[in-house]
Design goal:
1009 residues, 18 strands, alpha+beta, globular
Length: 1009
């Protein structure tokens, strides 16, 4: 060290505090090195400067002289004013160390520069405690800060807190009453024994496991991995030891005589997204899946950012580039090839024992609705007779169902379209590889039920066929029906419900081929209608049925688009005609002559002698416009569709699982993380800096799981304890649950975290025991109300001087509303369900390939845990939820007006409010009694007199308005499922629903108090 440096240090040292409190390397020094030094002087050789390592004792001691700060060049470079000598250098864009940090380094060197590890890589130690361990450490910390715990929360608050944390559901009236006459511990035991405990735990685990019901990426095809979700619920309900739970999910297939459930458990490591996009190299995808498993393992069990080492050695944590791929080797020989969808082997053929209940539910719904449909059909006979007589008179002189369209013709790419006298359109001029045709016209009919497209051959076409393309064949990929108002640029799409054609070619498994006319309805250019294989020199017809008949206003025009965007190209229709009809039902659902045209042609004088088959077709058409029947029919159709779906789910399913290849793959370090750039070969191993390999364990996934849950592993128990603490307190003892490394936060109460981690391992990884220990503490039971000065001093409640208070996750809000209203279907397990969500969300995202149909009957009111989860768009009624695309263990809490609007307007929330209102009105009670019952259901307590005054005022205001404006009441309730049209009680029901919605949206209702 230069004389100048020594003199500079000597001059500065008197400026520092001379407090000689022992400096901890792990607690005090290492965070400073991590934040300021290790990115350039750490273990990553590729980025190391001056060949100096400060992450090892030997490297650091080359610039540090223990016991002598003045002689330590390390300190000199921190304190110097010479920009060329200063560390960190100005060009690193890191600020220089502040005086407090520099003093820590000085005192540490003066005290001998005792080396150590990062706290998370030291084995946890269980120190001696007095009383409850949680309270022991928290009161000690509070005492140092001159604080004490808050008093216990009110009984109803405590019971709600406990119920939400252990079951995810609020308490009901009976449980609230029972709490007054039983002990707190008895309630804890009751909730831990509840079958809903497993569901509450599973929701957290599914986020961590990136579980979803689809593959992800563009295709986002459906998958049937939900039996694994049920395995998770059952495991938590059984209180399966966490080390066993871990072992089964890593290596259930490797057990001798493994059960089907143990094999299903390994689906944890198959819950990743799978990519089936065209042009994707399957081996690249397979490598991505292996990498996902390593990263997920690092996050969930180890709390480490292992993903940082995919491309290079970790800059901060003691994990090398080779360590990463040594861990990847455990997953590299899974018997998969990178395929997606139905080819994403390995699969287990598995039949869930929990699906039969769903079948019985769905069958009961069909049985319930079938008589209503039959009765509605029978009751339609009399009005049908009147309708038929009137139509018979009208068609006496003939009837034409289809009306050709004439109007403005356009093409996107310059094809010349000319309309002839009979409305036929001929293409000429440039013959582009792809083109879109557009016909815009006014409509004289009062309504439109469907459209007909006729495609004609012509001598000017190739071979006298149907197009000017090389083959003479056409491929129509999509059609669109739209409406535009004159003078406006806004266009609205009209939903087309079905399509039929006179030709059909089914796609084969070998390849996607064009053929089915239904392919024109989904915006996907990879499918569509062609008549290949049928005579090209004959005309062909397709008919498109609108979802609901369309009535245009006088200033509106109809737009019919024909899109030729096939991957083959050169197949644009050459000659065509478009017609519309106002006839619903058989006229647009098939290619036969319309029923009224047949009636006109039959020329019968006595309707009693009408051909029975024609009468049936006419009746079918009549029923299309008969509202009472359509209501009953639609209801039954949805129930029947659901029954078919759950019957399929009750059969054999393909569940994605792990299994090993007969011939293991070689594993290489991937240079810069690129999938096909192989470096040195590695074998199955783990980072030695974390824990040694357990003696005698095989080098496979089973051994890896036992290494993860080894008592020598300093991370796993700590990480799991932190997850559960976060569930109960809203934030973990480590506020970075996905990063226990050097760049993560230190624990707020490190001794408490270590005590709980060691105790968890000592007691057989008993999850329920650990949770009980946490919630039995006085710290957990504190009131969350807090004085302003404490909020200012400790806004994030790191000292834990008050009870936990945070907003409930959105899934819990929905489940709470269902519970409070009595709608909740408490059944466990089974196939996924589809709660209400806004119309058109899936269709918009997936070019019409997926249509979201909400579940019917009891299935609609299952817990949110069972909601069908599409990766490309998570359930839209949730907010701040994990996206389930990659592993997530942190908690996101935001607050936007959109969330308030969701809680006020979501169909499930509105249905819960209306159901609560109906229950309030069941009994002949005073308004005060009704409002008290509402409060007890939603908030688990009685309303105060001040609150009753406000609620009564709002109820009176709403009732007065709706009685004066019954149409507003009907409009308000019209979109809520299950609300019967009872005109006399509509104003009262609307008023009570409004107040129930108000209470469901109170801060107290959506907050973990």
């Amino acid at each position: 060290m230069s004389v100048r440096s020594a003199a500079f240090i000597a001059a500065l040292l008197p400026l520092f505090s001379y407090s000689e409190e022992t400096v901890s390397f792990s607690r005090d020094v290492l965070p400073i090195l991590s934040d300021n030094c290790l990115s350039c002087h750490g273990q990553d050789e590729a980025h190391r400067k001056a060949d100096l390592r400060l992450d090892t004792q030997d490297g650091a001691m080359s610039v540090i002289k223990p016991g002598d700060p003045k002689a330590s060049d390390f300190l000199a470079r921190i304190l110097t004013e010479d920009a060329d000598e200063l560390m960190p250098p100005p060009k690193s864009h890191k600020p220089r160390l502040n005086p407090e940090q520099a003093d820590v380094i000085r005192r540490w060197i003066a005290q001998g520069a005792v080396w150590g590890k990062h706290w998370a890589f030291e084995k946890p130690v269980k120190t001696k405690v007095t009383g409850h361990p949680v309270d022991h450490f928290i009161t000690a910390r509070l005492s140092k800060a001159g604080l004490q715990m808050a008093p216990q929360a009110p009984a109803h608050t405590l019971l709600r807190r406990l119920s939400f944390d252990l079951t995810g559901l609020p308490p009901n009236a009976e449980e609230i009453a029972a709490f007054e006459s039983s002990s707190y511990e008895a309630q804890v035991d009751r909730l831990l024994a509840s079958p809903h405990f497993g569901e509450r735990m599973a929701m957290w685990w599914l986020d961590a496991a990136r579980y979803a019901d689809t593959d992800g990426f563009q295709a986002d095809a459906n998958r049937t991995n939900w039996p694994w979700r049920d395995y998770v619920i059952q495991s938590f309900n059984e209180n399966k030891p966490f080390d066993q739970f871990t072992l089964e999910q890593f290596a259930g297939d490797l057990f001798p005589d493994a059960t089907a459930e143990q094999k299903v458990a390994t689906c944890f490591h198959r819950n990743h997204m799978t990519n089936g996009e065209g042009g994707r190299d399957k081996e690249e995808s397979r490598v991505d899946y292996v990498i996902d498993r390593v990263n997920t393992t690092g996050t969930v069990w180890m709390g480490l950012t292992l993903g940082c080492t995919q491309c290079h050695t970790h800059k901060f944590d003691p994990i090398s580039h080779a360590d990463y791929y040594s861990m990847a080797a455990f997953f590299n020989s899974v018997d998969e090839d990178g395929s997606a969808g139905t080819k994403a082997r390995p699969y287990l053929s598995y039949q869930s024992p929990l699906a039969a209940r769903a079948v019985l539910e769905a069958q009961a719904l069909v049985d319930e609705r079938t008589p209503a449909e039959k009765q509605a059909r029978e009751e339609a006979a009399a009005p049908f007779a009147e309708w038929l007589a009137a139509r018979h008179q009208e068609v006496g002189l003939g009837f034409t169902a289809w009306h050709p369209l004439r109007g403005k013709l356009e093409s996107e790419e310059g094809t010349v379209l000319t309309q002839e006298d009979d409305a036929t359109v001929q293409a000429s001029g440039p013959n582009k590889k792809q083109d879109d045709y557009r016909l815009t016209t006014a409509i004289g009919l009062k309504r439109i039920a469907g459209l007909k497209l006729e495609v004609f051959p012509h001598a000017s076409h190739t071979g006298g066929g149907l197009s000017r393309g090389a083959s003479g064949e056409f491929i129509l990929t999509d059609i669109k029906v739209q409406v535009k108002r004159s003078g406006s640029t806004q266009i609205r799409d009209i939903k087309v419900a079905g399509a039929v054609a006179d030709t059909f070619m089914k796609a084969t498994k070998a390849a996607r081929v064009y053929g089915d006319v239904k392919g024109t309805l989904d915006d996907d250019p990879r499918n569509g209608w062609t008549t290949e294989g049928a005579p090209q020199t004959e005309p062909h017809t397709a008919v498109f049925a609108l979802a609901t008949p369309l009535s245009l206003e006088s200033e509106e025009e109809l737009i019919f688009q024909m899109l030729h965007r096939s991957t083959n190209g050169d197949a644009n229709i050459g000659r065509f005609r478009v017609s519309v009809t106002d006839q619903p039902g058989p006229a647009v659902n098939g290619l036969e002559q319309a029923p009224l045209e047949q009636l006109a042609a039959a020329r019968v004088t006595d309707l009693a002698k009408l051909d029975p088959s024609l009468r049936e077709r006419l009746f079918a058409q009549f029923l299309e416009d008969h509202a009472p029947y359509q209501t009953a029919k639609t209801s039954l159709t949805r129930a029947s569709s659901q029954l078919k779906e759950v019957k399929a789910a009750a059969g054999k399913l393909n569940v994605m699982v792990l299994s090993e290849r007969k011939e293991p793959r070689e594993t290489h370090v991937l240079l810069r993380g690129v999938w096909d750039k192989h470096g040195e070969r590695v074998t199955q191993d783990v980072p030695a800096a974390i824990a040694p390999w357990p003696e005698g364990e095989p080098r496979n996934r089973m051994g890896l799981a036992r290494w993860i849950t080894s008592k020598e592993n300093p991370l796993t128990a700590r990480v799991f304890v932190n997850h559960l603490w976060q569930m109960c307190f809203g934030a973990g003892l480590v506020r970075t649950p996905d990063d226990f490394g050097l760049q993560g936060e230190r624990p707020t109460h490190p001794e408490l975290l270590d005590w709980l981690a060691v105790d968890f391992m000592e007691h057989g990884w008993d999850v329920k025991r650990l949770l009980k220990l946490i919630v039995m503490s006085e710290a957990y039971r504190q009131d969350s109300a807090v004085a302003a000065d404490l909020i200012e001093r400790d806004p994030q409640n790191r000292l834990l001087a008050r009870g936990p208070r945070f907003r409930l996750p959105s899934w819990m809000m929905r489940d709470a509303a269902l519970t409070a209203s009595g709608l909740l279907n408490p059944a466990l397990g089974g196939p996924p369900v589809r709660p209400y969500q806004p119309d058109g969300v899936w269709e918009e995202n997936f070019m019409g390939r997926f249509t979201y149909e909400p579940s019917e009957g009891p299935a609609q009111h299952r817990r949110t845990l069972y909601a069908f989860w599409r990766r490309s768009i998570a359930p839209t009624f949730l907010f701040d939820s994990a996206q389930r695309r990659v592993c997530e263990v942190g908690v996101s809490r935001t607050n936007t007006p959109l969330q308030a609007l969701t809680l006020l307007n979501d169909t499930s929330m509105m249905e819960a409010a209306a159901t609560l209102a109906q229950q309030m009105m069941l009994h002949d009670q005073s308004n005060e009694e009704r409002l008290q019952a509402l409060y007890l259901r939603v908030l688990s307590r009685q309303a105060t007199q001040k609150e009753l005054t406000v609620l009564t005022r709002e109820l009176d205001r709403a009732l007065t308005h709706y009685q004066a404006h019954p149409e507003d009441a009907a409009k308000y309730l019209s979109t809520i499922p299950g609300v019967a049209a009872q005109n006399s009680s509509m104003p009262a029901l609307a008023a009570h629903t409004l107040v129930a919605s108000l209470v469901l949206n109170l801060d107290e209702a959506i907050t973990h108090e």
